[in-house]
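Support request, priority: normal
Reporter: lab tech (M.K.)
Component: structure prediction queue

Hi team, I submitted a job for DC1 domain-containing protein from Gossypium tomentosum yesterday, and the status page still shows it as pending. I've pasted the exact input below so you can check whether something in the sequence is tripping the parser. The sequence length should be 139 residues. Please let me know if I need to resubmit or if it's stuck on your end.
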Amino acid sequence: MPGLDRQKDGEHGHDLKLENREGLFICNGCKELGFGNCYKCPRVGFCNYVLHVGCISEGRTPLSNPLFKNCKFQFYQKNPLTVAPACRICALDIQGRMYHCSKRKYSLHPYCATLTYDHHPSRFRHENQTSQRDQIQFL
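Reply from support: The job had stalled in the queue. We restarted it manually and it finished. Here are the results:
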């Protein structure tokens, strides 16, 4: 298996390289906007495949999130449900890859699944974000 700077993805034939994008991108896995660290196909000009770090499919294990007690979220490359679910954190429809807890019927975007509660009921932050500007606020 490649190191952390290179990863494989089950739906893409080339190794993906870790890079920091200055601009926005659309993740080919979850179909959501992204910025910052991502895995991108190094075949510049030929392939524009890019994934959030959390959307890499190789080696996924069930995920626990402290916001959802008694839930074990399984990673899915494709929606296993008959309808497009809404993310339990951001409330937006999930268009691509997702985490789903079959016990509680909760679904999460891969990025949202890694958000942490920041000691205030309306604040969540991603584990690698530290500035106030980078925090996601829900009003």
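Residues 126-139 have pLDDT under 50 and may be disordered. The longest strand covers residues 12-26. Let us know if anything else looks off. Ticket resolved.
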